[in-house]
Prior knowledge:
Elements: E1 9-13, H1 18-29, E2 33-38, H2 41-55, E3 60-63, H3 69-78, E4 84-87, H4 102-130, E5 133-138, H5 151-171, E6 176-183, H6 189-202, H7 206-216, H8 225-235, E7 247-250
Helix pairs in contact: 1-8, 4-5, 6-7
Amino acid sequence: MDLDIAGRKALVCGASAGLGFACAEALAKEGVEVVMAARTEATLREAAAKLAAILKAPVSWVAADVTTAEGRARIFAAHPDFDIVVTNAGGPPPGDFRNWDRDAWLAALDANMLSPIEIIKRTVDGMMARGFGRIINITSSSVKSPIDALGLSTGARSGLTGFVAGLARSTVARNVTINNILPGTFDTSRLAGNFAAQAKRENASVEEVKAKRLAKHPAHRFGRPEEFGQACAFLCGANSGYINGQNLLMDGGSFSGAW
């Protein structure tokens, strides 16, 4: 399927690994000019080189922490306008809400709610003026099906979800859509870290925790990042302009509900 977005310019945050890299790769293969952003320069440089080797073409990147005003300013100083934006930031660590102080909550809100909103604020008006825009927020399946230990992430991302639900209705008439993708268990380093933390809490091995999760999973496997990237690229397509303000749950059917 030709998504008809060749020549568009995209910012992909958290693009050095995992789901962010998968989104960058999928968009780049559609002919999109991708700007990869992530905090760690060495890791990002390596990821950009990997993608450039796949494409046999140069790939732009900016080492910046998008959860800070300074990081966002660095990105937009180098690349002021984008047609496509994929917001993505790692979630806060799991734990017990009794141990989370005000600073922990503010850090979660900054990373997983306020930073995406700031990026949207910086890009959405230009998209509307040009008559095309696609904004994808990578959130979490816990927004749909909350997990107690991920309360910091769930709380902050739920705030973003509510904000987007309102804003998306005011942008779509200018062909600018805003949607969220809610990943479940994908085979990434983030998932491995969650398993390690759970294993420590339960005094079990990581393999035991992993096997227990797979046994309960309807698909009996974890998602592949490339599957996520393809879904992201589809939502960014020129012919996806009537999909707006939605939360696409990608969890292999783990959520046990009809809608």
